Amino acid sequence: IYGSNFFMFKPDASADHCEYALGILTKQCQFFGPFPVSYQEIARPSTLNILMGIMGSLRGKQKPFANISTEEVSSEDKKFILKIMKLDPRDRPSAQQLLDDEWFDSE
Q: What's this model's pTM, rounded to 2 decimal places?
């Protein structure tokens, strides 16, 4: 899927570091955020505080994945990734819906 050495989720911390998960969440928010207001219905207050901090730290630094060029990610791949990277899990397709997606039929 990646071209031109494009790796959007690489956090600054190693996988065994306590900041790793926060780095991944920050990258997700940077490319696919902000987290929708509907997230309040499913997240704990402590989680919401973390997410608010992330969104505040990214003001003016967001890089919407929808704007990624076809040199970095093909149009077909981008369309599929945008389906699965909804920040509210209730907005994501089911595994079966993804398996039935036209993306798997393309070559």
A: 0.77
